[in-house]
Amino acid sequence: MKLGRPSVHYIYRMTSDEKLKNAFQQALGMPPEADFEAAKYGETEGWDSAAHMALVAEIESAFDLMLDTDEVIGMNSFEKAREFAANHGVVFALRS
Question: Could you give the CA distance from residue 80 to residue 74 in angstroms, rounded to a whole number?
Answer without folding.
Answer: 8
